[in-house]
Amino acid sequence: MIETDRLTVRPLIQEDYSAWLKGFNDRLPSQYRHDQGKLDMEECTVNWFASLVEKHQSLAKNDTAFVFGVFRKIDGKHLGMIDFSTLAREDFQWGRIGYTIHNQFWGKGFGKEAVNGALNIAFSDLKYHRVEAHINLDNQNSIRLAESVGMDFECIRKGFIYEFGEWTDNVIYFKNA
């Protein structure tokens, strides 16, 4: 867990269900291709959420992935999620970051503040030496966020991830401890 000026970035707990659900339910319609916008949350019951929290705990225990909720300190609102996936340990200590801020909270600097805080967790607590962001070439918002937190452009990986029904290229940004 880490606290920034306005945010708390920490693993989800069962008591987060209402705030988490409201964050998703209050999303605006999709703003662009890489914004999921409103989602159907009908199946996301209290019991479903309990299983999600358990799954996140299991992934963390196995050093596979670490999933954090982003909460506004002033009122506890759920603003989004940040996750790290362990790509390699031993001589690498290498992870990948993913981040999303609910679109109703865009344009207020929450993404930058949350990702900066989460990178501190990645390097100090999770002991990664290198963290990468894998970003679609046309996702300018994500590229700007990566650059704003001091991540450096490394390369374009061709046909890197299968999404939108095809193998897509990704731009790779990285930061070392």
Automatic annotation (TrEMBL):
Keyword Acyltransferase: yes
Keyword RNA-binding: no
Pfam families the UniProt entry points to: Acetyltransf_3
Example of a GO cellular component annotation carried by this entry: cytoplasm
Location of the N-acetyltransferase domain: 7-177
GO molecular function, a single term: protein-N-terminal-alanine acetyltransferase activity
Annotated SUPFAM superfamilies: Acyl-CoA N-acyltransferases (Nat)
Keywords annotated in UniProt: Acyltransferase, Transferase
Record-stated family: Belongs to the acetyltransferase family. RimJ subfamily.
Protein name as catalogued: GNAT family N-acetyltransferase
Organism this protein belongs to: Rossellomorea vietnamensis
